[in-house]
Task: inverse folding
């Protein structure tokens, strides 16, 4: 037995988060820790990681009671934590981030940079990841930052590794590499605690499971003795309605047309169109250029070649503000860095894009601001304490709902969603799918960028598959299968 939690309680003020949680993890075991956003998973792991202190209860390592007073103590006990919210030092290089806090040193305390670079290069090569160890973290996208975060845990030779949504921003082939590595570590006696909302992944990888709901352990057992449907019921507390594939509708009015768009080495000769009320999917593997393409259309990187047409008229957004005024909005994939404002409240994060609407004579009117936000909060089943609470007090899934409500409040004509359900639990994911369908039914053109084949298949009427910056395939209706998407995404169908 590596780790045992015994009767752990934790409250934040009057809010009780954990109610007598008990569970254990053995060496050579991959334990899935499951539950909705706000169920208490991250709180429990933060107690193990030394970020929080339990109100009562005990933690045992190798049978002996311990108290984790800091993250350094947790690391010293052989525990590595890969957090859901990445925390890279963007002004340091990749290898410096990999060794942060565990630097290799020469005599007299000088850093041994050559040794760190060599170890970093070898580990990245073993993972078959093409990242230059000399690259600055600020120049990496979210998925590559996630990979560097994982390598940090691997370098410390931890006996127990906590992985909190580690595959959220990884492409399929990278997930396979990660799982291969995890199984190798488990064979060496390492214990893994794996937190994920992707139940198919959990079933494929994990040996055991524990389900938390509202801070209580409601189910546990061997993974091969439970179905994904049963796991879903344990997580949400009731049977989930089965969602059918979105029907392919006939749409008349073209809202957005793109002709021969190119930008440096990010995307090349891209042409497509989106019609009013259509849900268009754009998918592929890491580095396919889909996020960069739509950031250019949104005016974030406007230095592209080619032509964009809005309602048949030439349109070139020189800034994101110009795009928003034209009715084009984009919800970014990296919630922490590009979407939420951590120092602002739930209310202000949800209404930030429409503050001018509530002003009169230069004064902000609180009543209409609250009224409009509460409509979306109810539609999204947003879980929060008070409107004036900081948005960082919400779980990751509820933060994502706040970001979505911000942009829906602008009444967009074109809604671009980059990984809209990243880090969102299965119950909230279905709610967001229904919201997207409802928005499309009002005539808004919706574009969903996602690397999850099942999400594209379930939600979209039509999908474009990109490979190395080009659109190499278009699939509709029953043509959209995971096999067909992967064929194009890997270049085999090009």
Result:
């Amino acid at each position: 037995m590596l780790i045992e939690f015994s009767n752990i309680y934790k409250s934040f003020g009057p809010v009780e988060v954990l109610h007598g949680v008990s569970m254990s993890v053995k060496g050579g075991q991959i334990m899935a820790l499951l539950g909705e956003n706000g169920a208490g998973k991250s709180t429990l792991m933060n107690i193990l990681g030394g970020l929080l202190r339990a109100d009562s209860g005990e933690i045992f390592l190798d049978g002996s009671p311990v108290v984790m007073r800091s993250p350094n103590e947790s690391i010293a006990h052989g525990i590595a934590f890969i957090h859901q919210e990445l925390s890279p030092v963007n002004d340091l290089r990749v290898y410096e981030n990999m060794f942060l806090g565990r630097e290799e040193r020469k005599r007299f305390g000088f850093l041994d940079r050559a040794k760190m670079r060599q170890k970093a290069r070898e580990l990245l090569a073993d993972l078959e990841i093409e990242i230059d160890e000399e690259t600055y973290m600020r120049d990496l996208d979210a998925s590559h930052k996630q990979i560097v975060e994982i390598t940090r845990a691997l370098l410390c030779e931890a006996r127990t590794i906590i992985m909190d949504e580690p595959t959220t921003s990884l492409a399929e082939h990278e997930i396979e590499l990660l799982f291969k590595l995890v199984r190798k570590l488990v064979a060496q006696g390492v214990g893994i605690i794996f937190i994920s909302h992707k139940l198919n992944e959990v079933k494929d990888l994990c040996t055991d499971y524990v389900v938390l709901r509202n801070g209580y352990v409601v189910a546990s057992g061997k993974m091969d003795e439970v179905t994904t449907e049963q796991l879903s019921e344990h997580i949400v507390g009731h049977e989930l309605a089965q969602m059918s594939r979105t029907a392919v509708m006939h749409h008349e009015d073209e809202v957005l047309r793109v002709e021969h768009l190119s930008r440096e080495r990010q995307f090349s000769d891209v042409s497509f169109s989106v019609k009013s009320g259509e849900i268009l999917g754009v998918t592929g593997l890491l580095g396919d250029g889909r996020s960069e393409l739509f950031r250019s259309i949104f005016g974030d990187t406007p230095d592209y070649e080619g032509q964009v047409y809005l309602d048949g008229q030439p349109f070139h957004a020189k800034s994101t503000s110009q795009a928003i005024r034209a009715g084009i909005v984009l919800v970014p994939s990296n919630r922490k860095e590009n979407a939420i404002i951590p120092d602002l409240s739930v209310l202000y994060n949800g209404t930030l894009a429409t503050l001018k609407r509530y002003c009169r004579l230069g004064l902000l009117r609180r009543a209409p601001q609250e009224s409009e936000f509460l409509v979306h909060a109810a539609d999204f089943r947003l879980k929060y304490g008070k409107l004036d609470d900081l948005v960082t007090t919400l779980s990751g899934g509820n933060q994502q709902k706040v970001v979505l409500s911000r942009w829906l409040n602008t009444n967009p004509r074109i809604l671009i969603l980059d990984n809209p359900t990243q880090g969102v639990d299965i119950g909230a994911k279905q709610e967001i799918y229904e919201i997207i369908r409802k928005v499309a039914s009002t005539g808004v053109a919706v574009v969903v960028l996602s690397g999850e084949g099942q999400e594209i298949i379930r939600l979209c009427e039509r999908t474009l598959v990109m490979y190395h910056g080009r659109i190499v395939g278009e699939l509709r209706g029953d043509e959209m299968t995971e096999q067909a998407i992967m064929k194009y995404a890997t270049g085999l169908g090009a």
